[in-house]
Amino acid sequence: MCGIIGYIGDKRPEKILIEGLKKLEYRGYDSAGIALFNNEVQIIKSLGKISNLEDKINNTDLIDSNIGIAHTRWATHGEPSEVNAHPHRIGHITLVHNGIIENAKELKEDLQEKGVKFNTNTDTEVIAGLIDYYYKGNTKEAIEKAIKDLKGSYALAIINDEEDKLYAVRCESPLILGIGDNEYFVTSDIGAILPYTNKYVLLGKDEIVTLTKNDYVIEKDDIKVYREVEESTLTLEDTSLNGYDHYMMKEINEEPVLVDNLVKKYINNLDKLPDLSKYKNIHIVGCGSAYYAGMIGKNLFEDDGIKVECDVASEYRYRNIVYDKDTLVILISQSGETADTIAAMRKANGDQVDTLAIVNVESSTIERECTYSVLIEAGKEIAVATTKAFILQVLILSLLSYKINQDDKYIEDIKKLPQQLKVLLDKTGYYKKLADSIYKHEDVFFIGRKIDYAISMEGSLKLKEVSYIHSDSYQAGELKHGTISLVKEGTIVFAIVTDDEIRDKTISNLEEVISRGAKPIYVGNVDVDYEDKIVIPRVHKKLQPILAVPPLQMIAYFVALKRGCDIDKPKNLAKSVTVE
Ligand code: G6P
Fold first, then answer.
1. Does residue 355's CB lie within 6 angstroms of at least one atom of ligand 1?
2. Domains of the chain (ranges, CATH numbers)
């Protein structure tokens, strides 16, 4: 994973790089580092968040430079430590890396035999060693040779201490070239450079960009590549907190408006959405919350009479799947860059099966490579725990399902959603009260059946990822085959009950745990007698999850707040998982 940024221009780079890293922190945050260059290379690294690096930089005499590279890390090879933090330097070459080199061990042994000395266990240092080994006066040539030896994924920003230049290259991991006035940037994400420019160029696989203060050239295998300059519509406001204490809360509160926008865009223009009725089989694939959105989609499309399977991408990519004719594979991903989901997509594309991307980030790998794509238009999502993107993924799945089987009640209800969401989100006092009763617990369970089970999985994930409370979700009927033995006096059990067809069954299962001491929290669309309950409006079945999940997001937020957790950047996680 990790985030990288590089700068070359008239300004001093340190502030630009630090501010940029803060915007990239969602990509990993166990250590960070910066390298500045002016005749000599100055490297500063620190463990932990970017603020630690910033403090260190503020207390260091910096060289006067106009070229710099920086990195925020999510450890893959080598524990999080200052020495393993990027940038890494061998000989003339200093670089930062996002990705993972699978043949690092062999390359390292080979280089060691040739006399190259290494200081760390990182795969990144091996790349620096390799480029330096090939460097005989022409850096671009050395990079070209080195990347031919690399197996895996990389986005690299590279400095050679013999030149006032910046180099960059990518394969699998994202990297864009930002075009400013007499200054250039390379970065994993446009959000990191928005204060300076919204103009950017997408770099293709193994295209090497050489940057000087006044110019840039992109080359692949010695041939110049011309790529269009694009303009991002993202604004600085999208990346600011706008008065909220956390991005997670800001993003949850954006849900009503974003839902309204998408509804308005599609409800009378269903022809803008792909027609799924022509497929006999649908496979839905994603990771984390995107997978749970997929599980909701599975329930929707099955009700439409289509055979559906849903799997996590890390499993799907390695399964032996014999695709039937008329199969569509739907890839759900906020970032459009999740390594396993990309691999799953390429597996289906390789088998000539139609693929549909449901993604947030335009021009991301998944968006570009799928046969069809629908953007969820969530705007920038910064909190590591996804909230608004999940809701919009579900909304798109719901609209796709409605397109297969249309009825008037759906149209009536979908128009009410934004207002209903707003009312639900405004009940913060109640969510805080529930959070007060939850935050000291060490185990929380969620139960539901069918679509309610899918909802419960997302509720449970949200709670555990931001509050670090152990939480699990179970099919309500399965609980008594083992997990019920964990239920004791006071155990909190959330029951999700929105599906009328199986309401009574889930309620019976809830009663089973209550009679063993559990404290229930009911989330459903029919008012009940339980003390702790979130009663959501009754809407069309295909829309019900869009109202059931936001209260669970709110509760997770307030529990994490009570426990003093780092809500937007939970430990060990990263927003964009670009490694396997
Ligand atoms: C990470 C994030 C999750 C996200 C998952 C899939 O684990 O922390 O919030 O659901 O990746 O990411 P994607 O960008 O593919 O939706």
1. no
2. 3-237 (3.60.20.10), 247-562 (3.40.50.10490)
Residue 107 to residue 103: CA distance in whole angstroms: 6
More confidently predicted of 455 and 232? 455
What atom of ligand 1 comes closest to residue 288's alpha carbon? Answer: 10
pLDDT per position as a tens digit, 203-244: 999 999 999 999 999 999 989 999 999 998 877 777 788 889
pLDDT in tens, 395-416: 999 999 999 999 999 999 999 9
- Ligand 1 center to residue 578 CA distance, Å? 10
Claim: this prediction has a pTM higher than 0.85: no
> Which of 494, 488, 491, 480 has its CA nearest to residue 551?
494
Cis status of the peptide bond prior to 87, with omega within 30 of 0: yes
CA distances (Å), origin 274, targets 300, 336, 356? 16, 19, 8
Cα–Cα distances (Å) from 258 to 52, 282, 367, in that order, read 35, 27, 20
Q: Is 293 within 8 Å of 393 (Cβ atoms)?
A: yes
Which amino acid is present at 326?
D
Tokens, residue 570: 């939970």
The two tokens of residue 244 are: 């909220």
Cα-to-centroid distance, 182 and ligand 1 (Å): 36
**pLDDT over 70 percentage in the chain:** 100
Helical pair 544-562 and 428-438, crossing angle rounded to 10 deg: 60
For residue 579, report the distance from its CA to the centre of ligand 1, in Å: 12
Binning the chain into helix, strand and coil, the percentages to the nearest 5 are 40, 25, 35
Please, what's the largest Cα pairwise distance for the chain?
78
